[in-house]
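Hey,

Quick one before I head out. I ran the complex with adenosine-5'-diphosphate overnight. Inputs first:
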Amino acid sequence: MTAAEAEGDERAVEAALRPRSLDEVVGQARVRDQLGLVLEAARMRGRSPDHVLLSGPPGLGKTTLAMIIAHEMTAPLRLTSGPAITHAGDLAAILSGMNEGEVLFVDEIHRMSRPAEEMLYMAMEDFRVDVVIGKGPGATAIPLEIPPFTLVGATTRAGLLPGPLRDRFGFTAHLEYYEPHELDRIVHRSAGLLGVELRPDGSSEIASRSRGTPRIANRLLRRVRDFAQVRADGVVTLDVARAALDLYEVDELGLDRLDRAVLDALCRRFGGGPVGVSTLAVAVGEERETVEEVAEPFLVRNGFLARTPRGRIATRAAWHHLGLAAPAAVAD
Ligand code: ADP
């Protein structure tokens, strides 16, 4: 199998594990309740639901919820992403092909180009866009009607969205990291679907090392399953889970290689900070966005790293986790 085939295979497994209805969604109780109400009300009125904005770190269920919205409204779903919309024309092409009631999912909506964003304001509010033909003084704007649709936008950071765009969403939900007992349920559910034999303590070990993230829980389950098949008798016990996760360098608190690299650079190279996030990203050889949107939210939430106006600083817990003595001035 080539690397691309393996990746396609992983994606197919991920798709198979997605909950298909709100009832199947584990955790996020408040979002589920609120969204359920929005959808129910829209169904009763026979209208498209309001536009929905979902924010939160990667892997917490934004795409899953978009699919569920379409499924519960028995509406078709169209998927695109901010980086794929580089010109207003790209968006006009998508919008002009929409059917009534369709759900348009725009992942990473904060990365859409500015002109496209402005076109989207009008489309969201008036179900109309102005398509500009030509350039300079001879340019003309041709108004184009769009059938009512529901936009579901996903962003890792709602704060990056311009106010006018944020204001046009009728319902905004912020997804939080999951609690270990919720991840435990997700791991059990996935194991059932994948036909993996799982002991309760094996499952809770995977859950507690999953960085509060369902996508990671499912991925770790698959890696532990590989280990169980090859190195044990196929059953995921506590010992098997521990040995497999150690092999994959996921530590007992769920920090992965990138998380540890960030803390390591922060403590060892920059004396615990404060240091700018761009400098930190260069030090670990990653994009700034990856450090900011993937590693940091988890490290901040778990009290390892603090964002201050002067830059990032390591907490005492970070020094401790790396097995280093913290300088006396470090705050808890
Ligand atoms: P995002 O779009 O936020 O990056 P996804 O919706 O792609 O995240 O979710 C990643 C994976 O995690 C999906 O394959 C799905 O199986 C699983 N998942 C996410 N949220 C939940 C949930 N609340 N309950 C069960 N599984 C979930």
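Residues 214-231 form the longest helix (18 residues).

Talk tomorrow,
K.
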